[in-house]
Amino acid sequence: MRRHLTLLLVALCATLSLSAQTGNREVKAAAAEAYAQKQGSYTPSFTHDGKKTRVHNVILMIGDGMGQGAVNAAMYANGGELTMTNLHTIGFVRTQSADNFTTDSAASGTAYATGQKTNNGFLGKNPARETIANIPEILAPQGYACGVLSTDDLNGATPAAFFAHQDSRNAKEGIWADLPNSQLDFASAGAQAVFVSMPISTQEAIRRRFTVVYDPRDPAVRNSQRLLYLPPSVDGKDRGPYLPQTTEMAIDYLSARGKKGFFLMVEGARIDKHEHSNEFPETIRETLDFDKAIEAAIRFAEQDGHTLVIISADHETGATILNRADPETGHAYGIFASKSHTPMMVPLFAYGPHSLEFAGVQENSDVARKIIQLLGRK
Ligand SMILES: [Zn+2]
């Protein structure tokens, strides 16, 4: 009888210590399989890559949550190739915020937009809550046309960092109300329904500053001074090729308007959202969609010769790991060890003149400082 009880206790202790161990982890590893239809990739000539010639235009492409795991998974599911991994200049970006070892998109977006680190949750403000200038505010007065494009809502932290100044990324109405006071010439993000839910005074102030269209073929686009294009939806299931097509549209729009050149930020926002919910196929789908937008930017840089394209991420999400893949069939098998952001460095790819200045390990705030310095040269 006593022996039975002892065995029972041993078994009970073993079970308890096992659950205590797994309880310490953020999540039990969640695994999933994905299949991707190959979409190919584009390889530019590298004629102007790394040259010390003048940079007229910068296209900064931010894959939200796009760490090594997302890039590897998308690349191998796509037959082993991506346009971004065809590029020669590679770096890493450290993403820590001013008050947290693991950043959120607001602090990292602000670092990319202003060259200064701030606290998680802050947009366009330093840790002392003082307003700090973003790239459009610095470059527009020098003759550069500026734009943002995202598959998030326009009040999402990454696009908002390039036009808003708010203590909280959740100040949705305040963020939209900052838009008419911004230095943006072009903005496109989600969505019509969000815009019309804003106070009438905010909508009117935005309409006084921007021509607002819901369709890129709207004839009002042609003669507009500044454009806000709001698609019906930015959701991955129903937006179609919105991101690559609007990247082309934004480049056309800004290059026709900038006296000296342009700055464009393009965000692939939904890689992060699917990593938060540990959805592996959707993580790959969104990374591949972002790579098509990268292709549009690289094709323009290739023919222009004075355009620098920088591709990176605001942080890693999901502790996303590619565990197995078969590039021949497009099957990939992944594991997530987290449902949150992680502090791991994110990859950076660059193409065009002065691309080599972005090689090596750098802070997210360094990327903005280098952009401002390159375009601010007389
Ligand atoms: Zn996130």
Structural account:
- By secondary structure, the protein is an alpha/beta fold.
- It has a domain at 34-171 and 257-338 and 359-376: Alkaline Phosphatase, subunit A.
- It is 35% helix and 21% strand.
- The strands form 3 sheets. The protein has a 10-stranded mixed sheet, sandwiched between helices. It has a 3-stranded antiparallel sheet with strand order 1-12-11, with helices on one face.
- It is globular and about 55 Å long.
- The chain starts with a helix and ends with a helix.
- Residues 65, 105, 272, 276, 317, 341 line the site of zinc ion.
What is the CATH architecture assignment of the domain at 34-171 and 257-338 and 359-376? Answer: 3-Layer(aba) Sandwich
Order of helices and strands: HEEHEHHEHHEHHEEHEHHEEEEEEEH
Under CATH, the topology of the domain at 34-171 and 257-338 and 359-376 can be stated as: Alkaline Phosphatase, subunit A
Strand content: 15-25%
- State the oligomer: single chain
Q: Give the helix tally.
A: 12
Structural class: alpha/beta
Main sheet: strands, sense, barrel = 10 strands, mixed
Short overview:
This protein has 378 residues and is α/β, with parallel strands linked by helices.
Name the features.
single chain, 10-stranded mixed sheet, Alkaline Phosphatase, subunit A, 12 helices, about 375 residues, 3-stranded antiparallel sheet, 15 strands
